[in-house]
Amino acid sequence: SMDMLSEIRRLREERDESTRLNQQITAYMESLEEAENAEEALLKENKLLRSENIRLKEENKNLKADVEATNAELKMQQEAVRLLQEVTKSNQKLEASLVSAKLELDESLSKKDQLQNQIFVLEKSNREMRQKYAE
To answer: pTM of this prediction?
Structure first.
């Protein structure tokens, strides 16, 4: 009877120990599953971050190219402005030369008119004298 009781007690303790071990195994399995899920989530996030990084690098490359193109365009515009300023200066000089040349031409034409008038007067006077001497 005493052996039977101690046997029952021993079996109950083994059963309790077995239950405790089963609960521990279940808890470890759950922890493992949680860790695997966390790892999977991290891998997904890592994949997303990698593709985002690639996209950003590409965007950065495109932005750099845009900046370079814009800088090149600005340089061309600055060069065009500089050339336009040079052409404007040249035009102003030419206009001044033209005004000066026109004044000289007007002066020459005026002198020519005066000389023609003098010639006309002299020729008239010459004809009149010839007529007088011819008489």
So the answer is: 0.45
